[in-house]
Amino acid sequence: MVKHLLLPYLVPSPRLFHLHSLRAFRPISSTIKMTAGVEHYTFGPYKIHKSEVFYTTLLSYAMVNLRPLLPGHILFFWASIIREVKRFVDLTADETSDLWLTAQKVGRELEDYHKASSLTFAIQDGPQAGQTVPHVHIHIVPRRSGDFENNDEIYDAMDEKEKELKQKLDLDKERKDKTLEEMSREAEEYRKLF
Description:
Blueprint: E1 3-4, E2 10-11, E3 26-27, E4 40-43, E5 46-49, E6 53-56, E7 60-64, E8 74-78, H1 93-113, E9 118-122, E10 137-143, H2 153-166, H3 180-191
Parallel strand pairs: 1-6
Antiparallel strand pairs: 2-3, 4-5, 6-7, 7-8, 8-10, 9-10
């Protein structure tokens, strides 16, 4: 069961949430289960099995990574269940706030869980910035000293990873795909953090 965040703020946009019968500035006092009955999520043209998702809010979700760069490397997405958003610049203020505040919370827990000392948050917004999957997402990577010879090499590695995904993950033989079972177990471990 995916755990859901109790949003600690008021919902300011009734237009965005009309499907949920929420009113402007109405406090959310109970868990909202948008994902009940959902078999998969979408990431651009890709289907993500619900067992790979370990955390959701009203507007975003976190999933384990098929080919992580480092232990704990996850992807954090804008929830396309509400509307399709390809670019970060197209998010509303409320959507941006939910995405980044929740990424901060998830990152904090993953850093602690993986006994890391830092975090890399990375977003590529548009094709010239390296975005190859047209869906707003953030890479969250727990970091340790020496995990890359040159600290900023992680950005080259992420760019390569994005290109691989677009090419159906045919490249980069050093990193192996995890099975759905492995990804489900990892997601279950992360669910316990929340």
